[in-house]
Amino acid sequence: MRTLWKGAISFGLVHVPVKMYTATEDKDVKFNYLHEKCKTPIKYERICPTCDTTVPPEEIVRGYEYEKGRYVILRDEDFEKLPLETARSIDIIDFVELEEIDPIYFDKSYYLAPGDGGQKAYELLKSAMKEANKIAIAKVVIRSKEAIVALRVYKDAILMATMHYPDEIRSVDLMPELNYQVKINETERKMALQLIGSLSEHFHPEKYTNEYRQALLDLIQAKIAGEEIEVAPRPETGKVVDLMEALKESIELAKTEKERRQAQKEQTEEKPRKKRVRKTS
């Protein structure tokens, strides 16, 4: 993995040198746009419409539009002048319970590894957070932007997740479709709870796979091999006419599926036992 950032975690007077690595990766199937006639990849060039020329990367600068058509230019040295301690460190502000944070706030995750000479301080922070069962809320500057982040212990490492600020979360009140009034009867409520109970399991992330991506890759391989593409029939889905009937059928289906998975699990875990044969002289 490539190091993305070097700095230190700072809490109180303690500084923990760390290196940052990306903890997740995008495995979506990527496509190039081609000219259908000659199958050549389409180029996307940075062209200045005023000069009518292609602009090289070294001539591209960042500009903030403070009035229509008027910009103030900011260069790398300008960002270096910002009086922020978080430009060089991950500054811990609070320690909180993970359960207090709604998942909507989390954005992207990064691994933090101990920097040169920081192994002891890193292990101290990690073990203390684990024993206290707390996560840390901190601030850090990444790519010219100050981010609020959450630090927590993940397996043998400290994980840093960037977070959205509260003013970046759009209000649900912006959706007029939520202004409705309906009445749920007690029987429907109980059956819905029963269905949730039937579908409830412990979280095992390995069971969730990207079936669409796999089907897409299979389709690509079939096209490469020149095979004829077979379209699998899709199950018919009728309109839900009766909510109660739909709940009943869903509960039965969930029960059947749960029993099937349990039987499959037991079959997988069952090991064939061989009888030991004693040798006789």
From TrEMBL:
SUPFAM superfamilies: SPOC domain-like. Residues 255-272 have a biased composition (Basic and acidic residues). Residues 255-281 are annotated as: Disordered. HAMAP family: Prokaryotic_Ku. Signal peptide: none annotated. Keywords: DNA damage, DNA recombination, DNA repair, DNA-binding. Homodimer. Interacts with LigD. This is Non-homologous end joining protein Ku. NCBIfam families: Ku_bact. One of its GO terms (molecular function) is double-stranded DNA binding. Belongs to the prokaryotic Ku family. With LigD forms a non-homologous end joining (NHEJ) DNA repair enzyme, which repairs dsDNA breaks with reduced fidelity. Binds linear dsDNA with 5'- and 3'- overhangs but not closed circular dsDNA nor ssDNA. Recruits and stimulates the ligase activity of LigD. The gene is ku. GO terms for biological process: DNA recombination; double-strand break repair via nonhomologous end joining. InterPro entries: DNA_bd_Ku70/Ku80 (IPR006164), Prok_Ku (IPR009187), SPOC-like_C_dom_sf (IPR016194). It holds the Pfam family Ku. Residues 52-180 form the Ku domain. CDD domains: KU_like (cd00789).
